[in-house]
Amino acid sequence: MKKIIKYVIIDILRNKIMVAYTLFLLVISLGVFNLEDNSTKGLLSLLNIILIIVPLVSIMFSAIYVYNSAEFLELLVSQPLKRKTIWLSVFTGLATSLALAFFVGAGIPILLYEPTATGFMMLGTGLLLSVIFVAIAMLAAVKTRDKAKGIGVTILLWLYFSLLFDGLVLFLLFQFSDYPMEKFMVGISALNPIDLSRILILLKMDVSALMGYTGAIFKNFFGTTTGVLLSFSILMMWIVIPSWLSLRKFNRKDL
Questions:
Q1: What SS3 state is found at 224?
Q2: DSSP 78
């Protein structure tokens, strides 16, 4: 298992796209912090970039890598190795590489310019989002045999989590504006790891007042230690459940 993980990590870190992704995050992060006179403002400017670019690159790169490694996976399956070992090794290699790229590109500037609780929260959620969307990408790839269709599915998933989900939530809020929806919003935010990460970071920045009464509800729940621990537990479930589903499908798949 260690040899497979090592091979996947070295293979990915040599990839020009991964190098470009790391450099892009590094340039953007350093640029944002140096252009803003206040490092907290720089962190806020970096927030949207991280919540959009990191999931996009993680889900797209992982899906393409799995499809391009089809022959390599078939070779490994023909060896006296358990399918569980093979699949988890590929997942670990992808997750480690993308998390490392995020840490070097955005994590180091955050630690240099904003080594506060807010900075650590952004760093933690960014790392988790990288791994979450690797898990989602591998689930989409193993369920869809056709490469073009699979990549299309991953793009749609990213669009849903990044844009469409917020639109659906706003639609529900307008449709049921006569009813108290604030507590319902706390529960529905768990259905989107990007939204959950955004709420945790904004609350750490203490800008919940800008979110009105709903922000007060979020702060009362997510602002507590129990709320933060529960939120990170939900984010961990976003890793565990797709990984388990993809592993189950891979074990039964006819290669």
A1: coil
A2: T
Give residue 18's identity as a one-letter amino acid code.
Answer: M
Q: Which residue type, as a one-letter code, is found at position 133?
A: F
To the nearest whole percent, how much of the chain has pLDDT over 70?
85
Contact of 204 with 99, CB cutoff 8 Å: no
The whole-angstrom distance between residue 106's C-alpha and the CA centroid of its chain comes to: 14
pLDDT tens readout for residues 176-232: 766 666 667 767 777 888 888 887 887 777 654 444 444 555 666 666 677 778 888
> How far apart are alpha carbons 110 and 129 in whole angstroms?
16
Give residue 55's domain range.
2-252
Which residue type does 85 have? T
Dig out the tokens for 211 from the structure: 């979110």
For residues 192 and 178, what is the distance between their CA atoms, to the nearest angstrom?
24
User: Alpha-carbon distance 63 to 22, whole Å?
Assistant: 18
Whether the CB-CB separation of 39 and 114 falls below 8 Å is answered with yes
Q: Tell me the pTM.
A: 0.88
Tell me the C-alpha distance between 68 and 88, whole Å: 17
Inter-axis angle of helices 147-159 and 39-68, nearest 10: 160
**pLDDT tens per residue across span 53-79:** 999 999 999 999 989 888 888 888 888
Total domains in the fold of the chain:
1
Burial 237-252 (b: 16+ CB within 10 A, else e): ebbeebbebbbeebee
Euclidean distance between CA atoms 180 and 201, whole angstroms? 25
Task: Give the count of beta carbons closer than 10 Å to the beta carbon of residue 137.
Answer: 31
